[in-house]
Design goal:
single chain; about 300 residues; alpha+beta; Pseudouridine synthase; 20 strands
């Protein structure tokens, strides 16, 4: 019985993963699923809250089984990255895995850095004023049902429309004589750091691409917390939705209302007592009955009703 109860908890949990370089986010999810299947004899569905490119590393939030319904909430969170941008090199994918289109000599790069260091710092900082961004051609953006990257690989010409974004922080940490720029970016969801690298090159009139990328936070969750696991950790740390979303209001309902909520009915509540837009309805055993969201001070809507335990 205890094992079964633990499995129920596992099937509504979150795993914070430090994805290494060299594997796709899909590969990371596959490996986690295999580990869970091997250890617990269950094969849950696993959702992510924003992928990382194969060459990138860092925080990946994985939602286990029933917790996947919360992906929308996590996907909208802003993100912080540490990026290494290479001046003097341009690739078709704007990252280290693409075909080289242009590459300067080390002497050219060194001379350029010496002459333009202050401009590089200024132009990098000025991204905080940018409110729109054109995604990279090699991206998962869908055009007529197909990824932009797939159209490009087929030799087709595509036009990507600018997306609304926000860049809260754009700061050079260090510039090296060999053209490597270490920078920190705090951006809204959907912002491409590869596009920032591309656009920086246009501003300073130099070939550029992204060398390395590390995601260090998603919303309030940091890569450096003790619950973040490496993919080859002997034991994963599974966190409950209620613990991770601990700031949400939790309304405990009497037993006679449990089935009514599962049927989509709304209990009478005073929304003035609810501090956050998103909140939970729980039963007396602390199980989630529903995820609700305030529409205004008099009304709320269900984002998700959990019809089964």
């Amino acid at each position: 019985m205890k094992k079964s109860y633990y499995h129920n908890d596992l099937l509504t949990s979150i795993l914070f993963l430090n994805k290494p370089k060299g594997i796709t986010s899909h590969d990371a999810i596959k490996k986690v699923r295999e580990r869970i299947k091997e250890k617990f004899s269950i094969d849950p569905k696993i959702g992510h809250t924003g992928t990382l490119d194969k060459f990138a590393e860092g925080l990946l939030i994985l939602l286990i089984d029933k917790a996947t319904v919360f992906s929308e909430y996590f996907l909208k969170k802003d993100k912080v990255y540490i990026a290494e941008i290479q001046i003097g090199k341009e690739t078709d994918t704007i990252d280290p895995e693409g075909n080289i289109l242009q590459e300067w000599s080390q002497e050219q790069i060194k001379t350029f850095i010496e002459k333009n260091k202050e401009q590089i710092i200024t132009e990098t900082h000025n991204f905080i004023y940018q409110t729109e961004q054109i995604p990279p051609e090699y991206s998962a953006i869908k055009i007529e049902g197909k990824r932009a990257s797939d159209w490009i690989r087929e030799g087709k010409t595509i036009t990507l429309t600018p997306k609304k974004i926000q860049i809260y922080q754009s700061e050079v940490i260090q510039i090296f004589p060999d053209g490597r720029i270490i920078a920190k970016f705090h951006v809204s969801s959907g912002t491409y750091i590869r596009s920032i690298a591309r656009d920086l090159g246009k501003k300073i009139h130099a070939p550029t691409c992204l060398n390395q990328l590390q995601r260090i936070s998603i919303g309030e969750w940091s890569l450096f917390e003790p619950y973040v696991c490496k993919i080859d950790s002997p034991n994963y740390v599974f966190s409950s939705i209620l613990d991770i979303l601990k700031n949400w209001d939790k309304l405990i309902v009497p037993k006679e209302w449990e089935q009514a909520i599962k049927n989509g009915k709304k209990p009478p509540i005073d929304l003035n007592l609810v501090q956050n837009d998103d909140f939970f309805f729980l039963n007396k055993k602390n199980k989630i009955l529903a995820w609700a969201k305030k529409v205004d001070q008099q009304n709320f809507m269900y984002k998700k009703v959990f019809t089964t335990d």
